[in-house]
Amino acid sequence: MSGNDPSIIGEKIQRAKDDAKIAIQLSREEGYEPMLAECYYEYGTNFEEKEDAANAFRMYKYSKEVALAYKHLSTSEVPVSIVTETPIPTATEIPKEEGSKLILILGSGLIGRINFLSLKRM
Q1: Where are the alpha helices (DSSP H) in the chain?
Q2: 10 Å Cβ neighbour count for 98?
Q3: pTM as predicted
Q4: Angle of helix 96-121 relative to helix 35-49, nearest 10 degrees?
Q5: Do 105 and 73 meet the contact criterion of CB atoms below 8 Å apart?
Q6: Distance of CA 91 to the CA centre of its chain
Q7: What is the tens place of the pLDDT at every residue in 11-41?
Q8: Which residues, 6 or more positions from 71, have their beta carbon under 8 angstroms from its beta carbon?
Q9: Measuring CA to CA, how many Å separate 18 from each of 1, 61, 72, 104?
């Protein structure tokens, strides 16, 4: 983080921490349990305790973005219909929207794993 004023840096970290906490809560209210966002939040807390401001700030920002990403993964409700005959399975393609969600989830997990491994080396 640029700047050397500890009070300004502390304010930015606190704001990022609060934003992440709010985003996680919003995600929960939508019916999701944002576990990856919670992990980033915990990493931020650990970095904050170690007085590593740049990484704490970064982890809180990741936490917020991942928590908010869950909103974009929601699908509209599908009406329930009663099936009176046994459907015959056919080969189907994954819709682009579903594929995009899968890529987003896998990408988030991969980024989290890479960050975890790089932090573990420290």
Answers
A1: 6-29, 35-49, 53-73, 96-121
A2: 12
A3: 0.57
A4: 20
A5: yes
A6: 32
A7: 999 999 999 999 999 999 988 889 999 999 9
A8: 26, 27, 30
A9: 18, 10, 21, 24
